[in-house]
Amino acid sequence: MINLTEKQREDVTRQYVQIVVDDWDTKELVRYAISQMTAYFDEGSLEELKSDVDDRDKDLFDELVDNATQQYAEQPKTFIDINNTGGKY
Predict the structure, then answer these.
(1) pLDDT higher for 86 or 49?
(2) Residue 34 placed within a domain
(3) Quick one: DSSP state of residue 67?
(4) How far apart are the first and last CA of the chain?
(5) Cβ(64)–Cβ(53) under 8 Å?
(6) Number of other residues whose CB lies within 10 A of the CB of residue 1
(7) Domain containing 19: what range?
């Protein structure tokens, strides 16, 4: 294997990343960004996450917590018969 300096290695990496990213469509870029940001915030504490969320919007953290905790609450099951078929297809 060829020996490269740290700067040369960084240059090869940068060039390759540019080639890969140039081939991605918008959905792939968004998916990658979401994955990386999720990993970043999962590594930190909840307090750090709250601080970052609060910097964006002071009320957002409470709303997100409410969404997450309500998601697991027992939801009543309702059936709406939009076709007036008495529950049959």
Answers:
(1) 49
(2) yes
(3) H
(4) 67
(5) yes
(6) 3
(7) 14-71
Q: How far apart are CA 89 and CA 84, in angstroms?
A: 10
Confidence (pTM): 0.64
- Inform me whether the pLDDT recorded for 74 exceeds 70: no
Q: Please count the residues of the chain.
A: 89
Burial (CB < 10 A; 0-12, 13-18, 19+), residue 17, is: exposed
Report yes or no on 63 lying in a domain. yes
Please indicate, yes or no, if residue 82 is contained in any of the structural domains.
no
64 class by beta-carbon count within 10 Å (0-12 exposed, 13-18 middle, 19+ buried): middle
Structure tokens at 85: 């078929």
In a domain, 48, yes or no: yes
